Amino acid sequence: MPKPNEQTNHKVPLCLTIDVEDWFHILDSPAAPTIEHWSSLESRIERNVEKLLVLLDAFSAKSTLFWLGWLAERHKNLVRKCQTAGHEIACHGYAHILAHEVGEQAFRNDVNRSKAILEDIVNEPIKGFRAPGFSVTNKTAWAFDVIREAGFQYDASVFPASRGHGGIPNAILVPHFIETQHGHLLEIPSSIVEVFGRRACFFGGGYLRLASKSMIKWGLNRLLEAGQPLVVYIHPREIDPYQPRLPLSLKRRFKCYVRLKSTISKLEWLCRDYQLYTMLEMAENYIKSLYYEARTLPVINLGGNHRITWTDSGEEVRTPVGHQSIRDRILKVEKAMATFLSPAINEHVILNEPQLQPTYR
Ligand SMILES: [Zn+2]
Questions:
Q1: How many angstroms separate the alpha carbon of residue 3 from the centre of ligand 1?
Q2: Domain count, the chain
Q3: Are 267 and 234 in contact (CB under 8 A)?
Q4: Distance CA 313, CA 87 (A)
Q5: Choice between 29 and 18, residue whose per-residue pLDDT is larger
């Protein structure tokens, strides 16, 4: 058996996400300029995003760009250029606010405003959302209701470990459905590995810049072994070593500006060694695999309350399965299917599997 990511014909899929914001969009610091001042500052977003587009294009790599609405409405052509290049346009809110700081109504207004701006620019539904600073926490469960209510189908706001602005230390590490007041929301959490019983991240922002390639690669292999998706996040300012510096505290200065020159070579390495795809593709693949799994279970379950699988050497393995859990699972997946997949994919799946109506004993 080849180890994950060893020399094989197929590259391991990895989802590169880019939170599109400028050099001055630093959260939670008195030294960061407030929104009234943003327009008067030099913008470096065009050059940084253009540079990323050229890099990704050189490897035919696709990414998901979580755009800040405030920036998107000032750089509409750049948003469209990203879309035309085949990248997914997703939403990072309007004014870069922390969910747990502003409260439910202000968060709702911000999210809805940004989604409307982005949809107006790209002329298609925006399906994915990520809160600034991963600021959805155990204390802001209402945020998932707001995100689903706004019409998003997946969310990438959960950072399943402790962190500065947010984080849910005990959150599930794999994609899962969150039941909200407005239906199921697919959550794709940030990638986290467990090292000596502690949760750690090498896959985004300062963590990605600080960690060596071999550490990152080790972490990515750990994710694969654990069946977790590979999600990397960056900001355009992280490829810009010559950006103006804000008078941040020593700790924040380190986090924001450490090893900015290492980002490009790490991105080139990821583009070369991994198959980069969008978060929407990842989400759709995940839903489809759940769908097939859920619909196959009752068929192989007809002999009793066991799920039958086989080892590589052909030995039968029987795993007890509760009927209730199967029924729950199918209902969940079918509900998610109904709202999540684009009509074309939905039709494709259903047309090709006409007789898989679940049966129960
Ligand atoms: Zn952000």
A1: 35
A2: 2
A3: yes
A4: 42
A5: 18
CA distances from 114 to 117, 151, 200 (A): 5, 12, 31
232 and 301 share a domain? no
Q: pLDDT tens across 110-126, in order?
A: 999 999 999 999 999 99
Distance CA 287, CA 285 (A): 6
Which burial class, exposed, middle or buried, applies to 34 when counting CB atoms under 10 A from its CB (0-12, 13-18, 19+)?
A: exposed
**Whether residue 232 is found in the same domain as residue 302:** no
- CA 96–ligand 1 middle distance (angstroms): 6
Are 215 and 320 part of one and the same domain?
no
Which residues, in sequence order, are bridge partners of residue 276? 14
CA of 360 to the centre of ligand 1 (A): 47
Do the domain assignments include residue 266?
yes
So what's the pLDDT on residue 132?
96
How close is the Cα of 24 to the center of ligand 1, in Å?
A: 11
Mean pLDDT, residues 47-61: 97
For residue range 167-196, what is the model confidence (pLDDT) as tens digits? 899 898 988 888 888 888 899 999 999 988
Q: Containing domain of residue 343, as a range? A: 283-352
Q: Distance from the CA of 34 to the center of ligand 1, in angstroms?
A: 14
Closest CA to 190 of 15, 62, 66, 13: 15
Separation in Å, CA 302 to CA 310, 332, 361? 16, 21, 7
192 CA from centroid of ligand 1 (Å): 18
pLDDT tens-digit readout, 284-314: 888 877 777 666 654 443 444 555 566 677 7
Distance (angstroms) between ligand 1 centre and the Cα of 53 equals 19
Do residues 193 and 230 both lie within one domain?
yes
CA of 290 to the centre of ligand 1 (A): 31
pLDDT of residue 298: 47
User: 192: which 2 tokens?
Assistant: 């986290």
Dist. CA 97 → ligand 1 center (Å): 9
d(CA 188, CA 174): 7
Confirm whether 28 is domain-assigned. yes
Q: What is the pTM of this model?
A: 0.84
Q: How close is the Cα of 35 to the center of ligand 1, in Å?
A: 14
Q: Tell me, in angstroms, the distance from the centre of ligand 1 to residue 306's CA.
A: 46
